[in-house]
Amino acid sequence: GPAHLFRLAGKCFSFVESTYKYEFCPFHNVTQHEQTFRWNAYSGILGIWHEWEIDNNTFVGMWMREGDSCETKSRQTKVHLVCGKSNKLAYVSEPSTCVYSLTFETPLVCHPHSLLVYPTLTEALQRKWDEAEQLLYDELITDQGYKKILKEIFEEAGLLKAREEKEVEKQSKKITLEFETVEKCSKEYKQLSEEIKKLRVLLGQHGIAYRGNSGESFGI
């Protein structure tokens, strides 16, 4: 991420709301402490530093994930970075159950270019991004394909964590790769056509009509 933000590492910032004290330690974790005299007052982790939230070539926030368990999932927190006169935790909310939202003010993000992603990348990854921009401009890839390349770049840079692919997605990916060239696609089509011919002959031998894609029946 942005090198100038690393000076926040090793520091913690707190915010008190009602009976709860929240503590944000950049690049480490977010914790919540219930400040009451109850014997079972809650004190726990709302998330551990995980990855960046990136939108339109900009670091818009930090994701703290895999906090203490909460029903069937783990607590997680998104920290929004906004320009402010001093480093401080300004606002905390819980938009949905066990998913928290923190607003952190800091003068370190006030410069308009302070949160750009591109300058933080290595030359090799910047070149990869430039190539993707050119492919998109030349209409050789779709917007979806462009976003996929960017995601891969961010993952390679360690800005995003690579998600575990589900078995179905893996299978889908495998099929897509099999037909990535016209030659492979034509070859597969030819093989399938041959198999259909054989099946039609076999059906004809048993006096069964063949039903095509158009829904019409053809006697063989």
UniProtKB/TrEMBL annotation:
It is found in: Golgi apparatus; Secreted. One of its GO terms (cellular component) is extracellular region. Pfam families: PRKCSH (PF07915). Keywords: Disulfide bond, Glycoprotein, Golgi apparatus, Secreted, Signal, Transferase. Transmembrane segments: none annotated. Residues 10-112 form the MRH domain. Signal peptide: none annotated. It comes from the Eukaryota. GO terms for molecular function: transferase activity. Residues 117-219 form the DMAP1-binding domain. Non-catalytic subunit of the N-acetylglucosamine-1-phosphotransferase complex, an enzyme that catalyzes the formation of mannose 6-phosphate (M6P) markers on high mannose type oligosaccharides in the Golgi apparatus. Binds and presents the high mannose glycans of the acceptor to the catalytic alpha and beta subunits (GNPTAB). Enhances the rate of N-acetylglucosamine-1-phosphate transfer to the oligosaccharides of acid hydrolase acceptors. Homodimer; disulfide-linked. Hexamer of two alpha (GNPTAB), two beta (GNPTAB) and two gamma (GNPTG) subunits; disulfide-linked. The alpha and/or the beta subunits of the enzyme constitute the catalytic subunits. This is N-acetylglucosamine-1-phosphotransferase subunit gamma. It comes from Cinclus mexicanus (American dipper). The gene is Gnptg.
